[in-house]
Amino acid sequence: MKFSHNDVLQAVMKTVIDGLIIIDQNGIILAFNDSASRIFGYKSSEVLNKNVKILMPDPYHSEHDQYLSNHLKTGIKKVIGKGREIIARRKSGEQFPMELGVNGMELDGEKFFVGTIRDISERKLAEKDIKDHAERSQAIMNTVLDGLIIIDHLGIIQEFNPSASRIFGYTREEVLGNNVKILMPEPYRSEHDTYLSNYESTGEKKVIGMGREILACRKSGEVFPMELGVNKLETFKETLYVGTIRDITTKKEAEKSIEQFIKNLETSNQELDQFAYIASHDLKEPLRGIANNAQFLQEDYAALIEEGGNRRINRINFLCRRMERLVDELLYYSRLGRQALAIQECNIKDLVTDVIETVIEPDSQDIHIKLEDDLPTIYCDKPRTRELFRNLIVNAIKYNNKPQKNIHIGYKSIKNPNDEETYQAFYIEDNGIGIDKRFHSDIFKIFKRLNEESEITKGSGVGLTFVKKIVEKHNGEIWLDSRIDEGTIFYFTLKSKNQEFKEGV
Fold first, then answer.
1. Which DSSP helix (H) or strand (E) runs through 482?
2. CATH 3.50.30.30 fits 5-119, yes or no
3. How much helix, strand and coil, in percent to the nearest 5, is found in the chain?
4. Are the beta carbons of 379 and 345 closer than 8 angstroms?
5. What CA–CA distance (Å, rounded) separates 24 from 96?
């Protein structure tokens, strides 16, 4: 079977994937294949015998006829015989990028031009996505606070972000193309290439996929500590390694300062222990001497001392006892902060009952204590917790001028006004003199007494300080609600690392 040239041409026009358009020397479309129809949205019947510039937006639309005329006159080629990217226009008016290749041919003395068209919209979108992704990646590289270094499988630096420049003192241009070991002191510098080679051949990891602290070297030669994390990055071209670097010089200096502070603190604690010994023996000795001599004066010179003198000697004895008690309480407070808790299971109801029996006389008629049944069993330091409840119960009795002193002890869910959190808290409520809101933050300060003159508020000013310290040692919170002449409620929580509460009572 013989095929004519026209049959072959028609078969090619129909089967070729790219759009094919043939125009004459005036730009009139003579052929328009199916792929061109798919690309432009025109049927061939809609464009045949029309100027090809209907497929072009401005400025190509306006310039096309002039360009074709100039080529025919001068033979100068701008597109013919070459390929280039231009913007075309579909029937819908949508503009799109395409690759255009044009070749000229001559038949029977007439010139024709064959255009090969490829719609590259999807490729351009993909290129834009790649470009956008690269720009985003570069933006991240440029703005991230940590140093980022990318090397290839030979250790050659491919990327070096601004933070890495700031850390090492090199510009990006100074290090690109160099082996990353220029950033390392010995022995890391000598070992690096061997390590990378071993990993490439065996897959054995020492740094990759992990973080560790190593020493690095700045451009100035200064060696400094850094945190290094390395991850492997497989691309379609090659294997890369991304290193994340954080200069931890300041962190290490802070750690050294903390270590030194701890050593100094241990020394201070030892000195405080020595002070405790001195205070408990040497400071008390002159106090006892003063008190003893005052007593001797009263006994040996009773006939010579008037009533006013006796009052003053009694005052001396009282102040000596008070000073001795303050020394004891100060020592107790200092030890309270340093000694570890002895955590054990404790039934709070039993503990509080025991405290009440030791504080209140059995035949006392003016004190009524209501103890709720739902007090929990918890884990705590039993002696300290007993001291906590004892101080609060004694205060509830001492600072109460009512003929009937009522105290209510229980356990409930309550919101702490200091942090707006809700806690399961113990509470001790009284109907005593109350505490002015102005002094709520002061009552836990050591030796702080709110009313120096009132007989009813006499005390050393350390009881509530002990209470707060014991609560804090148990990782708890303490706060109060009080109204003058109506009474006070102390709330507190107790926690331990073992277990906060045991189910049941």
1. strand 478-483
2. no
3. 45, 25, 30
4. yes
5. 24
Topology at the third CATH level for domain 343-502: Heat Shock Protein 90 (3.30.565)
Strand 367-371 vs strand 405-416: parallel, antiparallel, or unpaired? parallel
10 Å Cβ neighbour count for 80?
17
Residue with tokens 């001790």: 428
- Whether 388 and 425 have beta carbons less than 8 Å apart is answered as no
409 neighbors 425 (Cβ within 8 angstroms)? no
Q: Residue 428 and residue 277: Cα distance in Å, rounded? A: 36
Q: 408 with 393: CB under 8 angstroms? A: no
At 58, list the tokens. 């401005």
- pLDDT tens string 322-350: 777 777 766 766 666 667 788 889 999 99
Answer yes or no: are the C-beta atoms of 21 and 115 closer than 8 Å.
yes
Sort strands 19-24 and 110-119 into parallel, antiparallel or unpaired.
antiparallel
Residues whose CB falls within 8 Å of the CB of residue 265, separated by 6 or more in sequence, listed in order: none
Q: State the chain's maximal CA–CA distance in angstroms.
A: 159
Strands 157-160 and 211-217: unpaired
Which tokens sit at 116?
């090969």
Q: Which helix (H) or strand (E) holds 148?
A: strand 147-152
Low-confidence stretches of the chain (pLDDT beneath 70): 1-12, 65, 68-69, 71-81, 200-207, 209, 273, 276-277, 279-281, 329-330, 332-338, 446-461, 496-505
Which run of H or E residues covers position 350? helix 348-359
- The alpha-helical segments, DSSP class H, found in 415-501 are 463-473
Give dist(CA 77, CA 83) in Å, integer: 12
In angstroms and rounded to an integer, the radius of gyration of the C-alpha atoms of the chain is 47
Which of the four CATH numbers 1.20.120.1760, 3.30.450.20, 2.60.120.260, 3.20.20.10 does domain 126-247 have? 3.30.450.20
pTM of the model: 0.46
Candidates 249, 227, 246; CA nearest to 147 is 246
What pLDDT, in 10s, does the model give residues 382-425? 888 998 999 999 999 999 999 999 999 999 888 888 777 888 89
Instruction: Tell me the CA distances in angstroms from 429 to 263, 369, 387, 389, 472, one per residue in order.
Output: 44, 10, 17, 12, 21
CA dihedral 414, 416, 417, 421 (to 10 degrees): -100
Amino acid at 244: T
| Helices 307-338 + 284-300 axis angle, to 10 | 160
Q: Which of 425, 440, 424 is nearest to 483 (CA)?
A: 440
